Amino acid sequence: MRKKLFIPGPTEVRDEILQAMATPMIGHRSSAYAELHQRVEEKVKKLLNAERRVFLFTSASTGVMEGALRNCVGKKVLNTLNGEFSRRWYEIGKTCGIPAGTVEVEPGKAVTPDLVDAALATGEYDTLCLTYNETSTGILGPVPEIAKMARAKYPDVLIMVDAVSCMAGTPIDFDGWGLDVCLAGVQKCFALPPGFAVCAVSERAFERAKTVPNRGYYFDFIENEKYAVKFNTPATPGISFLYALDKQMDCMFAEGLENRYARHLEMAKHTREWGKARFGLFGEEKYLSPTITHILNNGFDFSALNKELGKRGAQISDGYGPFKGKTFRIGHMGDLTLADIKWLTGQIDDILKLN
Ligand SMILES: *Cc1c(COP(=O)(O)O)cnc(C)c1O
C-alpha cells in the first residue's frame, strides 16, 4: 500500500511528477538537454531571486554541503549549531580538514545575529555556515537578519545557507539578502524523489573559489561553471530529475509562490495547534518552522502508532537522534495540502483515542 509521507524528506511525490521521471532518455550533450538544463536553471533562479548563477548537481544535499565548504573556505569557517543537521555541516568540514569554530545554542533555540556577530568580530573567519531550517528540531533560524548583519559588518565573510528542508516552502531572496551559497536537495519542499540538488552561488563565492586550493573534483565551482555557461554539467547529470523539476517548477509558478508559502504556513498552523493541544510543542515559539512540526511524545509507543498509520496509508517521523522516543515530527512540506494534514491528525486522534 502506498503511504503518504508526512516525514521531513523524502516527501510525497505526485504521480504527474513520477511520470515526468519516466520521460525517455536523451544524450546529455544534445541540444535538447541544454534547453532542458537552461529552462530548469532559469526557473530555480527565479524561485531564489538568484540572478547570477545556479548549479544543478546530481547528488544528495550532503555532497553539495561538502563541495561548498571545499570551494569557499580559505581561512576558517564559523559553524552555527542548534541541532543534528547544523552539526552535520561542522562534521563534514572536519573530515575535509577545514579549520572551523562554532557558535552553539540548545536544540529548540535559534542562533541569533548577536551571537554570530560576536564570533565574527574575532576576525578569524572568512566563511559563515547557516542552517535555515533545522530539521531535527523544527526551527527556522533568523537567516535574513543574520545575513543583514554579516553583510553590513563583515563584507568579506561568505554566507553559506543549508536551505534543504525549507527551499520552495518558505521565501528565499538570495540576491536581496546578500547570500553567497544557498543549497537544497529536491526531495523535501520541491516534492521530487531524492538524489538531486540545486545550489545558488554568488560572484563573491565564485571569486573566492578561484583562490582556494584542493576544491575537489565533482563539486568544483570553477569546473562546473565552464560547463554551466553552455547549460551542461561536467559529468552525466540525472536527466530524469531535470524533466521532473522542469514540470514541478511550472506547477509551483502556476500555484503562485506566495500561495505555496501560505499553504505551508497554513499546514504548520494546524499542526502546531493540534500538537499543542494534545501533547505540547518542542522549541521556541518565535522560530517554529513552516515545514516541519516537532511535538512532544507524552509516553505513547511511537512505532506502534506509525505502524497503524502505515495500515491507513501514512507515515510520520520519530524524534531525531537524542529525541528518539521523546518527541515526534510531522513534515508538512512539498505538495501536501491542509486537507491531507487534517486527515493525518484525525487519524492520529483516532488511533491514540485523543478525541
Ligand atoms: C535532509 C537534510 C539534509 C540532508 O539532505 P540529503 O539530501 O539527504 O543529503 C541536510 N540538511 C538539512 C537541514 C536537511 O533537512
Structure summary:
This protein has helices spanning 15-21, 31-48, 61-72, 84-95, 113-120, 143-153, 174-177, 203-211, 221-228, 239-255, 257-278, 302-312, 338-352; strands at residues 4-5, 54-57, 77-81, 100-104, 127-131, 133-134, 139-140, 158-162, 181-185, 197-201, 292-296, 314-315, 317-318, 327-331. The protein has 355 residues and is of the alpha/beta class. The mean pLDDT is 97.
Describe this entry's structure for a reader.
By secondary structure, this protein is of the alpha/beta class. 43% of the residues lie in helices and 15% in strands. The chain folds into 2 domains: 4-10 and 256-352, Aspartate Aminotransferase, domain 1, CATH 3.90.1150.10; 15-253, Type I PLP-dependent aspartate aminotransferase-like (Major domain) (Aspartate Aminotransferase, domain 2, 3-Layer(aba) Sandwich). The strands form 4 sheets. The chain has a 7-stranded mixed beta sheet, sandwiched between helices. Strands 11-14-13 form a 3-stranded antiparallel beta sheet, covered by helices on one side. A two-stranded parallel ribbon has the order 1-12. Helix 1 (15-21) packs antiparallel against helix 10 (239-255), helix 5 runs parallel beside helix 6 and helix 10 (239-255) crosses helix 11. Bound molecules: pyridoxal-5'-phosphate.
